Amino acid sequence: MSIVSVDSKAGIQTAIAAASRKTGIDFNYLMGQAQVESGMRADARAQTSSATGLYQFIEQSWLGVVKDHGAEHGLGWAADSIRQTSSGRYVVSDPATRRAILDMRSDPQTAAIMAAEHASDNKAALEDKLGRPATGTDLYMAHFLGQGGAAKFLGAMEASPDRAGAALFPAAARANRNIFYAANGQARSLSDIYARFAGKLDQGAASVGAAGSASGLDGLSAQLDQFGASLGESEVILGNDAAGGDRHWIETTLAQLNTSRSGANPLAREAINPLRPTPENARLAYLMLANLGA
């Protein structure tokens, strides 16, 4: 298996696929968010804030998510070094350790898994408050407004979609006028703001090759065929998992995807969307990328 640098586009996509597989967070969402936030650049830095890396974490948000989830992903040393004060601020007493933790924002693998964990936290909180599954756009609203702000926005939009967003979020509107107001100065409605966020995510995903469910199925055809054929020719080993242990599961999932892309089962075609995958399909994407040398 060829090795591709994690700083390359393929390496970054593989890191995001792995994060999606581990957390169950939508792969297409994570790809779109990375494109929107940083242009898929692991070393991206904002000029007006401390935001850094693939997902443009500011320092406090990064320290918080590493504190909560670092130990789950081999970063116990970092989590243990972070302390939350009575005011809620995250601090690290040793300057060198603090810098090492913050520098991990520029590592795609660490950034992707922390972004996915952060999205997972937001997803659980939103679903608990809204009483329904959270979409990728819902998660981006939480990224933009915070959990509480997103729940307030989504609840208000469900009740009154034509309500002006600026009236509900005056501070956010002052800081982000282009989001809350049209070019002519007219305040955008909650539903319009939401639709613009959805479009922004979709455009971000499309720009890195995830153009839509139908084209996504067609675009996967050749890669699925190549991957399926490779099962009979070579062993696929990822970490400690041998291909033999995954072979039956891979073949079953490939069969489902092939049925979906062929149109033989319209219900399956609708249910199996490689651009908004289940954890099982995200796992397949990860295995496929690794096997093809990505």
Instruction: Give the C-level CATH assignment of the largest domain.
Output: Mainly Alpha
Q: Structural class of the helix and strand makeup? A: mainly alpha
Q: Work out the number of β strands.
A: 2
Domains, number? 2
Helix content: 55-70%
User: Would you identify the regions where 5 or more consecutive residues have pLDDT less than 50?
Assistant: 1-5, 211-227, 229-246, 256-277
As laid out across the biggest beta sheet, the strand order is 1-2
The proportion of residues in beta strands is: under 5%
Specify Rg, calculated over alpha carbons: 20 Å
Oligomer: single chain
Shape: globular
The averaged pLDDT comes out at 77
Distance between the termini: 9 Å
Largest sheet: 2 strands, antiparallel
- The number of helical runs is 15
- The topology string of helices and strands comes to HHHHEEHHHHHHHHHHH
List the defining traits of the structure above:
mainly alpha; single chain; 294 residues; disordered N terminus; 15 helices; Lysozyme; two-stranded antiparallel sheet
